[in-house]
Automatic annotation (TrEMBL):
<dbReference type="InterPro" id="IPR029063">
    <property type="entry name" value="SAM-dependent_MTases_sf"/>
</dbReference>
<keyword id="KW-0620">Polyamine biosynthesis</keyword>
<dbReference type="Pfam" id="PF17284">
    <property type="entry name" value="Spermine_synt_N"/>
</dbReference>
<comment type="similarity">
    <text>Belongs to the spermidine/spermine synthase family.</text>
</comment>
<feature type="binding site">
    <location>
        <begin position="137"/>
        <end position="138"/>
    </location>
    <ligand>
        <name>S-methyl-5'-thioadenosine</name>
    </ligand>
</feature>
<feature type="domain" description="PABS">
    <location>
        <begin position="2"/>
        <end position="235"/>
    </location>
</feature>
<feature type="binding site">
    <location>
        <position position="162"/>
    </location>
    <ligand>
        <name>S-methyl-5'-thioadenosine</name>
    </ligand>
</feature>
<feature type="binding site">
    <location>
        <position position="86"/>
    </location>
    <ligand>
        <name>spermidine</name>
    </ligand>
</feature>
<dbReference type="InterPro" id="IPR030373">
    <property type="entry name" value="PABS_CS"/>
</dbReference>
<feature type="binding site">
    <location>
        <begin position="155"/>
        <end position="158"/>
    </location>
    <ligand>
        <name>spermidine</name>
    </ligand>
</feature>
<comment type="pathway">
    <text>Amine and polyamine biosynthesis; spermidine biosynthesis; spermidine from putrescine: step 1/1.</text>
</comment>
<comment type="function">
    <text>Catalyzes the irreversible transfer of a propylamine group from the amino donor S-adenosylmethioninamine (decarboxy-AdoMet) to putrescine (1,4-diaminobutane) to yield spermidine.</text>
</comment>
<dbReference type="InterPro" id="IPR037163">
    <property type="entry name" value="Spermidine_synt_N_sf"/>
</dbReference>
<keyword id="KW-0808">Transferase</keyword>
<feature type="binding site">
    <location>
        <position position="31"/>
    </location>
    <ligand>
        <name>S-methyl-5'-thioadenosine</name>
    </ligand>
</feature>
<dbReference type="InterPro" id="IPR035246">
    <property type="entry name" value="Spermidine_synt_N"/>
</dbReference>
<comment type="subunit">
    <text>Homodimer or homotetramer.</text>
</comment>
């Protein structure tokens, strides 16, 4: 008998993967959590029926959340990651020697606990002395830390359950206030095939708050449609003005200095969404 996991990404479409082992299925205080092993993508974290990360393709998402913003800001000493309890974005943030402190605020401590146990390749830097891990509500942390951070990264699930507030205009305003005078923020903003309305709404809201707003994309095969967007809001620095020849090479599998600007070149139908 074969066991398969299916994520129903719309009412009429989903993706499926053959399961080789189930490690954890638990209803936490905030969401349904599963940690499984798959034949195609290796170990996989699933929250509320949605794939969050897999061993095989996790590097794309985590690198593309972290590096475009950190190579746009000239001195990102204080960095906040909201969500991201698997630790992948933190791992990438720590590749930047200018970062003196990285704060992770994850609402669900079980995500951190099980990621450390079953995804050590991803979560391995959560105990780094440059990292402070806080199990709390990221929305409230933003509200309570005015003018504190150089870069804020929102590594959230899709806008369901505890992540709903992380896609609101009030949250983006709170991020603006929590950033220093030349700060940058970046958030994952879903896919343009199934969530075009969400991308448009986020883009409109962020543009009403930040003077510089850019959208970029990456290919992540286990995420709905495979084409994923990220939205960057900046108070001062434009990622398109970065001298790519001055970007140092870092250990990576997806991000490169040449890709830095190329990622912001959007397919026409995505460009039309954010005009």
């Amino acid at each position: 008998m074969e066991l398969w996991y299916t994520e129903k990404q719309t009412d009429n479409f989903g993706i499926t993967a053959k399961i080789t082992q189930t490690f954890v299925t638990e209803k936490t205080e905030f969401q349904d959590l599963a940690m499984i092993d798959t034949a195609e993508f290796g170990r996989m974290l699933v929250l509320d029926g949605m794939v969050m990360t897999t061993i095989r393709d996790e590097f794309v998402y985590h690198e593309m959340v972290a590096h475009p913003a950190l190579f746009t800001h000239p001195n990102p000493e204080m960095v906040l990651v909201v969500g991201g309890g698997d630790g992948g974005v933190i791992r990438e943030v720590l590749k930047h020697p200018k970062v003196k402190k990285a704060v992770l605020v994850e609402i669900d401590g079980k995500v951190i606990e099980y990621s450390k146990k079953y995804l050590p390749e991803i979560a391995g830097e959560l105990d780094n002395p440059r990292v402070e891990v806080i199990v709390n509500d990221g929305y409230m942390h933003i509200h309570d830390h005015k003018a504190t951070y150089d870069v804020i990264m929102v590594d959230s699930t899709e806008p369901v359950g505890p992540a709903v507030e992380l896609f609101t205009k009030g949250f983006y305003q709170g991020i603006y206030d929590a950033l220093r005078e030349d700060g940058i923020f970046v958030a994952q903003t879903d896919n343009p095939w199934f969530k075009a309305d969400l991308i448009q709404t986020v883009n409109r809201d962020v543009k009403e708050i930040f003077p510089i707003v850019r959208v970029y994309t990456a290919n992540i095969p286990t995420y709905p449609s495979g084409l994923w967007t990220f939205t960057m809001g900046s108070k001062k620095y434009d990622p398109l003005q970065v001298d790519e020849s001055a970007i140092p090479e870092i250990e990576s599998k997806y991000y490169t200095p040449r890709l830095h600007k190329a990622a912001f070149v959007l397919p026409k139908f995505v460009e039309d969404l954010v005009k």
